[in-house]
Amino acid sequence: MSDVDKTEQDWDNYWQGRNNPSQASALVNVEKHEEIRSFWVAELSMLQNRNLALDLACGAGTVAQILVELDFPNVHAVDISENALNALKSNLDNVTTKQSALENLPYESSSFDIVVSQYGFEYGETENVIEQVSRIIKPSGRLLFLSHKTGGAIHTEVISRRREIQTIRDIGYFDSARKIFAVAMGQAGETSTDEAANEFKAKRIQLEDLARRSGGLAQHLLNGSRALYDRRMHYDLADIYGWLDGMENEIARFIGRMKSMEAAALDENKVKRIETRFRQKGIDAFSSRILRDNHQNELGWILSGTRSGN
């Protein structure tokens, strides 16, 4: 499997989790952040004379939706994940979508009047993405990105949530849950009832403590396990194992995505290098500043620029 194929699979796994109502409460949710939305509305309202707009690494289409609401006439969106694009199209059937990696955008040169991205640009291989973005922007076209900031509020939250979810896996709850279900359903083999019960109790207490502190996926796992145990006579053991396997896989995928978000965050030195490269590619008046919420928490880097020419 190539690196591009692996990235596509990883992002599909992530968006599958994001679109699953039973998992969504455990995930870092910036798509509906009101102060981020206000930023986009204010900035894009000043650019409504632009015709062709592209939401780069669009995810479920948070910024594309704002473009539509502001009556931008031609809105396009691109993402590497088919699951992300399916989520977008379920709400925005008038947005033209394409599936692609950022490093090889499937658009003609000088195609777009404005290219926007919310927490997406920084995930690509920087040099190639800058080359592609600079290529597809029309002369006098604008780019406007909101990117993760190292040490910012979202970056800090991502690290915290990743550690919480990592704890669920480290507890070893899933193996002990499989044993206790096998015992309860008379399929434990040589595993003793007392051994399974004592092991599971210790793991459950740790998970309950985590759920009290953080809720989210830990609480969902507890609730689901209890419901399955109470109704265990209505299920085959294989079905219960299937649910536990699915939850365990979802945790592994979430941890992987959070690690990617941590790694993608931009520090000041990276931003300076990005500015230099964009300027070298003809993106003039490039600037960077920090978006803060009403409590002065740093939400990310605002990167903007205009391609030279008429």
Keywords:
seven-stranded mixed β-sheet, 310 residues, alpha/beta, 7 strands, disordered N terminus
Write up this protein:
The protein is an alpha/beta fold and 310 residues long. It contains twelve helices and seven strands. A seven-stranded mixed sheet has the order 3-2-1-4-5-7-6, sandwiched between helices. Helix 5 (82-91) links the parallel strand 2 (74-79) and strand 3. Helix 1 crosses helix 5 (82-91), helix 3 packs across helix 4 and helix 7 runs antiparallel to helix 11 (237-264). The radius of gyration is 23 Å and the shape is elongated. It starts with a helix and ends with a strand.
Summarize the topology:
Elements lengths: L2 H16 L2 H4 L9 H12 L6 E5 L5 H8 L4 E6 L2 H10 L4 E4 L12 E7 L7 H11 E11 L5 H19 L1 H12 L8 H22 L1 H15 L6 H28 L3 H13 L2 E10 L5 E10 L3
Parallel strand pairs: 1-2, 1-4, 2-3, 4-5
Antiparallel strand pairs: 5-7, 6-7
What's the short version?
The chain is of the alpha/beta class.
Parts with pLDDT < 50 across at least 5 consecutive residues: 1-6, 21-28
The neighbouring-strand order within the major sheet is 3-2-1-4-5-7-6
Q: How large a portion of the residues is in β-strands, by DSSP E?
A: 15-25%
Estimate percent helicity.
40-55%
- Overall structural class, as computed from helix and strand content, comes to alpha/beta
Order of helices and strands: HHHEHEHEEHEHHHHHHEE
How would you describe the shape? elongated
Mean pLDDT: 87
Write down the Rg.
23 Å
Counted by DSSP, the helix tally is 12
First-residue to last-residue Cα separation: 43 Å
Largest sheet: 7 strands, mixed
Number of strands: 7
